[in-house]
Amino acid sequence: MPLSVVALNKARRRLIDMHYRAKVGHLGGNLSCLDAMMLVHHEHLGTDDRFILSKGHSAGALYVTLWSLGRLTDSDLDRFHQDDTLLAGHPPARGIPDIRFATGSLGHGLSLAAGLALAAKLQGASRRVFCLTSDGEWQEGSTLEAAIFSAHHRFNNLTILVDHNRLQGFGSTDTVASMNPLHERLSGLDFEIRKCDGHDLGSVRAALAPDRHRPLLVILNTIKGRGIPHFAGAMESHYLPLTAEQYAGAMAQLDKESRRPPLMAEQYADAMAQLETDR
Amino acid sequence: MRDELCRRLVARSGNERMVFLTGDLGFMALEPLRDAMGPRFINCGVAEQNMISVAAALSYEGLEAWTYTIAPFCYARAFEQIRNDVCLHGLAVKLLANGGGYAYGVMGPTHHALEDYGILLTLPNMTAFVPAFTEDIDQTLERAGDLPGPAYVRLGRGERPKDEVVPPYAPWRRLLDGDAGVMIAVGPLAGSSWDVLRQLDKANRPALWVVSELPIKANAPPSELTDALRRTGRLAVVEEHVAHGGVGQAMCHWAIEAGIGLDRFRHLHAQGHPGSTYGSQAFLRRRSHLDAEGIALAANSLAS
Questions:
Q1: What is the ipTM of this complex?
Q2: How many CB pairs under 8 A join A and B?
Q3: CATH superfamily label, B2-155
Q4: What is the enclosing helix (H) or strand (E) of B94?
Q5: From A120, which residue of chain B is nearest by alpha-carbon distance?
Q6: Do A116 and B39 touch (CB under 8 A)?
Q7: Residue closest to B100 by CA, chosen among B290, B292, B275, B249
Q8: Which of B39, B49, B89 lies nearest to residue A122, judging by beta carbons?
Q9: Counting CB atoms within 10 angstroms of each CB, which of A102, B164, B215, B249 has the fewest?
Q10: Which residues on B lie below 8 Å from A92 (Cβ)?
């Protein structure tokens, strides 16, 4: 069923609210990938398909996505980051059927996804596998091992999404260990590589059309902390929880957005240009 | 053990659920398995971390996943993949590790596996198999393969003394009777220990046992061994593994918990790489007193 902007905004509001109440960070990377994660779950994943969140620090976005599908309840989300919760800061190893693997240490998810894709091939099954990675995660050697393996075996049932928000734990991906332009660095691998605006549903939809012959890698150009004034695109959005002022700003922004169309492609381009200038 | 390993894996490969992954190892050894398994035999290349995670995912989907590489490239290189992807989820991946202890000899210290089962047995659900003789491979693969959880198989070279018949496989086996306490050998060193101890009188030697499945807590020593320890209070452990996390420490812990006092304990274990030179497995064992002379001294010290 097509993902509506209303449903997406509702999820975004719930995600921000959940993080704020729990007083935890990592919100920036959750907001950068929420749109694509929601779209994949609402429009692509069938019962037998698999989704691996390799950037496990975006667990909140995954929990909220599952909540939007009715697989987690409000009271589940209310226990996010609490004692005795299933909803840890990174996806848990057991207890939530839609979450097949505990992730959080970067560099594992793509190999797990490759294994799931291989299993489907060996079993003659038609299920598809989606894997969401961060952009900094491509600095991990094991991610490259998995990429080489997936390309070599031409897993056309595998779709890899890269949340390209350009910020990592202690700097920008450009200044820490640059893989930019990412699509050019990865173009030596036999993937179908596409780029899209990760906050424009139409753009993500178009990029996700499957490739018949080889793995599909979609680079989602995104903004860390998207939609929160004085937080989006800032280093603080990686680790720090929202202040009361930022939370109020985020809610006001969401109110405004629910009254008008979501961020358009040209606004995204402006925001990215502004980020480059700030840098 | 490698030829026997290949033969037994080929025999098992009739199971359509079985998938075999190698980290680019197996030249002039595993070709029959590759030919028998076709697309279910996959050379993952020089990428062990990826191989282990792929195996975890295969196991998740109900396939019987085996991996094969040189021991340290498995337990050391891909430790986090074993910890997170395999063990956290209790997945039944079978890790075949070639070259236990100093088996790679003069190839150098990067290829030695001196802390493998000690490290891996810190992980939940893990079982380590240390076959002692070539004759053990059949049962080792069957038991590891049928286990519902992860398994690590430490492979070496069988050292059965000439003219001796290996008793049928069991996690604990007594190879020799003896009155002067108990000596426990781990893996192929059981063969060398057997050769030394069989030359001593029963009255002046410890009973020799070989253990092939770990951890001790999940595979407690049999009553005959326990009785002998209670009676004599004398124990020696011989293993090609560092002391920390080894069977020697595990046995002491087990004995204390079982209320068995040990008034004499000898631990022959790998000393790592104390010198700047390298050599064969025999040379490296000798430097750690894991040779005939060291074993005889340990036996005598229990008897005296």
A1: 0.96
A2: 89
A3: Thiamin diphosphate (ThDP)-binding fold, Pyr/PP domains (3.40.50.970)
A4: strand B94-98
A5: B61
A6: no
A7: B290
A8: B39
A9: B164
A10: none
